[in-house]
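Think of the structure tokens as a kind of shorthand, similar to the way a musician reads notation: each symbol stands for something richer, in this case the local conformation of the backbone. In the example below we present two proteins back to back. Begin with the first one, reading the sequence and then the tokens, and try to describe in your own words what changes along the chain.
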Amino acid sequence: MTLQEIHEKVNQLQDDEGFVNNDAEFFATAVDFSLKKEFFTYSLSRQVSVDTKKLKEKRFVAALPETTESDAYKILRTQIQQRTKDKGWNTIMVTSPQPGVGKTLTAINLAISMAQEFHQTVMLVDCDLRKQSIHKQLGYESDRGIADHLLENISLSELIVSPGIHKLTLISGGKTIEGSTELLGSSKMGHLVAEMKSRYQNRYIIFDVPSLLQGADALAFLPFVDTVLLVVESGKTSLTDSKTALKLIPPEKLLGFVVNRHPSSRPVL
């Protein structure tokens, strides 16, 4: 099968938002591995180029080939897969008790690592409506984000970015939003998350959400996701803050902790 034939098939299987549906993901299993990279490029999404040389400088270690740090995220990825797949969980909220502990860095590294898994794709959504930062950290410009879909009905295909990292797509950007709590807790947001979950059985959707004790945004969004990953930093996050944050997360939704700057030099779940 040629690349042109694959793209024609993708166009047939894409929905109005520009996503390939479950039939398309099933179709991928019949495509030669050497062509899958082209297949998983979202033809309707905006293509940007992330400078891989700068990834290490910004501590996006999951993108580095065969290093101790990237192996640590592979371990984290495997643990998450083992705890979620049997339950059918594929929507993960990444948050922290307080800001400044590497929450967004962890979300990006986790998304990159999980996208490297052969049988799945990953979408990373920036849900910090007061401070969109994922696109800035990855070094590309974006004047639209998830709020533009919620407020102005901009199609997701106009918001999704392919950063040149195999099987990873992103939504990040746009202006600061007032009333972010109400927007994140809205029925439209809930319907969107539910649609993402049901539409993509072989995809993890990771939501980078504001810190739990920073305001009500994370609490408003929490009911919509399958599970929550809480990021803390060794030597910085207080026990009091950790306990307070834990009380806000239903026990059945807590996936675990990620401990950054742990003496073992790797994130610990």
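Once you have a description of the first chain, move to the second and do the same.
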Amino acid sequence: MNVDRYDTCVSDGASGVGLQASGTHGPGDTCQQPDARRLKPAPATSTALAGATGYAGAELHKLLQRHPDARIAGAYSSESFSVGAVVSSGAEVVFLATPNEVSAHVAPQLLDRGIKVIDLSGAFRLGEPSLYPSWYGFEHPRPELLGEAVYGLPEWCNGELKKARLVANPGCYPTSILLALRPVTYLIDRAQPVICDAKSGVSGAGKKSDVAYSFTELFGNFKAYGVGKHRHEPEIRQGLHLGERAALVFVPHLLPTDRGIYSTLHVGFTQPVSAEELSALYADAYADAPFVRVLPHGQIPELKDVVNTPCCEIGFTLLAGGRRAVIVSVIDNLLKGAASQAVQNFNRMQGYPEWEGLR
């Protein structure tokens, strides 16, 4: 991981929304950092990480190592950890970068022992227990916790994280898509399909020995996968408050690169919208968001500008006289789509500045 690339967000300093001043980012460019100094220094927090050897888990371990207010009491692989070992470590907050069903069983045991949990799997993202058998392949063992879990998209949390015991870290695709579409959700014409054409680097599939993810299968190739059955689809629908009747077309693709997500979103509006109106909506939504930058109308983000950073970059172009828009959102799937977002949630839970450990 290239730590220097963490300092690549640009702030316009006036509107509070990160704007790309040109097509390149210089070494001195930094993410917007709002004035959120603590009145009293919060004490350091003892943490543990299960799943530290996976792609997202390894990134998270690096971030916790450099975090001035986090002490790593234990780090374990998904295969070797036990609840007893995690409890014995004395951790106050545990990060679970473990498979969905593992998290679904382990998180309740930690909560029952008074330990806070930030779960990077999909085990607690959906609010409806009946969705788990069809989308995740198992009956949820503790469905009552789904109502308690805070969906940790920090830019759209209004204080819930401060009191949270359990945080469901959003999926990588939903993070990219929801950050782009939440500001315009109530402008969307639900009579028209919301089309999410999203591409991910292969690290999004996790570490596995599978011919489909081998170099020879991926190099020079590009393909769709999981169409109509990807687990992030109900999460996206839930996050956009679309209901069951509105049409959502989510098509994930696999890019022949190691990391990054590029989401191209096609939406129709109930009435014409001007570029100024749309820009104002984004400016208002992300005025205090240190890791989201919105480009001026007509400028489209590129993957290279966010890979190895904790930032999301959003651009849009209006079509059909402002009745439709193409909105593009890019993130690093292992950082803003997983590890750095988990640290954002940790910071808010524990009362630290949101960018702590991420600069």
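Compare your description with these statements about the second chain. The chain has two domains: 31-169+338-350, 173-331.
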